[in-house]
Specification:
Length: 328
């Protein structure tokens, strides 16, 4: 079987190609993709050759060079066909899908590919009456939800989210929904402007950052969505006893922690990674209910045949680049 895909052929090289896909099996679903959502942080890391697996850094001289590969892990589309053992879906259903099968690539799974031959356990039927595009980034939305749902929250707790990217945005939305008073520390005014009105955004490049804690209240929760260990260290003196630190950014081989420094304040460390069906279900519900806002964070859309242009924009680190969609 053949499919169109966005292929990272080598470091910083992106092409749209026709690739081989194994024939669908009895537990697979074939999906004609409408939109796929680029996960800027994770996929950029693969494009730069920094990872050999989801949480494993590439080691030069030890690991094989991880190209070519088809990055990504989230898309929406219409079911073309289902395997004989798939009973919860049928042709014509609008669905979200995570990673799909591919052949001849470094990884056997693919994100930006259509038609997408996908295991049924990585496919979710979408609710009627809601735009499919709202759900196109649902795995990444789940990462933010996961970060924001890990620590206990009492009404009025101060929660600080480090990072103004998509994971930071959705972690902040989740904490706000749960009753926290949320502050997001970022570096881009353009991105911080996308925060809901009830969330305070502070640009770390501005000297007025200390105004965020002018009342000297202590922080109950810190969510690091970007791997900013130095910022977490700076915030630690502001964290209350028995507070919570959620670490979600990719740290490669630099994520060393002195446990004793956490013990002094009895700080609990949470290390969310990946997704589960239960969390994906809750994320879908949050999007449907409206407290997880997704499509409002889409800043750029490209026809899939212009995927290389999309990646050129991302690599150049345009400050207003958040949600980037490929239209198929």
């Amino acid at each position: 079987m053949k499919a169109k895909a966005v292929v990272f052929t080598n470091k910083l090289q992106v092409f749209v190609q026709i690739v081989d896909v194994q024939e669908p099996g009895s537990t697979d679903v074939v999906i004609d993709v409408e939109h796929s959502w680029i996960s800027i942080g994770t996929e950029s890391s693969y494009l730069r050759g920094e990872r050999i697996a989801g949480e494993q850094a590439y080691r030069e001289g030890v690991d094989p060079w991880p190209f070519p590969n088809i990055a990504g892990y989230q898309k929406v589309g219409i079911v073309r066909s289902v395997g004989s053992e798939v009973h919860h879906l049928q042709p014509g259903d609008r669905v979200f899908a995570s990673t799909s099968h591919v052949s001849g690539m470094f990884f056997r799974h693919a994100g930006h590919i259509s038609p997408a031959v996908t295991p049924a356990n990585q496919v979710w039927k979408l609710p009627e009456g809601k735009p499919s595009l709202d759900y196109a980034g649902m795995v990444l939305t789940q990462v933010g939800y996961n970060c924001g749902s890990r620590p206990p929250v009492h009404t009025g707790d101060i929660a600080v989210v480090i990072g103004d990217g998509l994971v930071g945005q959705w972690a902040a939305q989740t904490l706000l929904h749960r009753g926290a008073e949320v502050i997001v520390l970022g570096r881009h005014d353009e991105r911080l402007a996308y925060l809901p009105q009830d969330i305070r955004g502070i640009n770390m490049r501005h000297p007025a950052i200390q105004e965020a804690w002018a009342d000297d209240r202590h922080i109950s929760i810190v969510v690091d969505s970007v791997g900013a260990m130095s910022t977490v260290s700076e915030l630690r003196s502001r964290m209350k006893r028995e507070s919570h630190w959620v670490s979600a950014g990719f740290l490669g081989e630099s994520g060393l922690i002195d446990i004793q420094t956490l013990r002094n304040q009895e700080i609990t460390l949470h290390t969310p990674s990946g997704w589960t069906k239960e969390r994906m279900d809750r994320t879908l519900d949050g999007i449907s209910e409206g407290w997880l806002q997704t499509s409002s964070l889409i800043t750029h859309r490209f026809p899939v045949d212009q995927a290389a242009a999309a990646w050129q924009m991302i690599v150049e680190n345009k400050p207003n680049c958040l949600g980037v969609i490929l239209d198929w």
